[in-house]
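call fold(seq) -> tokens
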Amino acid sequence: MGIFTNSISPANGLGSGKFGGIIQTVFAHKTDMTSLSPGRNGQATIPSMSCAITMNDSSNKVFIHYSIVYDTGTSNGKGGFRIDRSGSVIAQPDSAGNRYLVHTGYGANADQDQSMMNCSGTFIDTPGSGTHTYTMLAYNCDQSDATFAVRINGARQDPDQADDGRACSSLLVQEISV
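ret:
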């Protein structure tokens, strides 16, 4: 689903050195619960967390904002979330030795029940012309438990009790003028 405009506010354009007129918006809203097991040094696509956008101008930028509600198991798992653009991971920090690279990180949750955490992030990309698909990925770094799982939109344990919640996650992608 997209929202388009053929005009930019303010009417006289943006001042020198500024950008940000919204050209189009694409939004994904994940409302179901998913359990992912990316494995050692593996990554997994988060279902329903993907947006495709066709650029109107190759010099424009793409503003990406995501909010992911998740929980993890009690193992000593480490990892985080990555942004993928059409098959390539983007928005990562500089490499630093043997450290794993993610846009935002998560850690183990010793409780496993009635606990959900939220992770959000933003990034501005310059993808150039064409159609680009942005997808959120869960990444697990090397660890002793290759079955370590990340649950999206719910607590790791889900016994269907009144004190166990569910949540939703979202991905917003906007083409902005330069």
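The chain has a mean pLDDT of 83.
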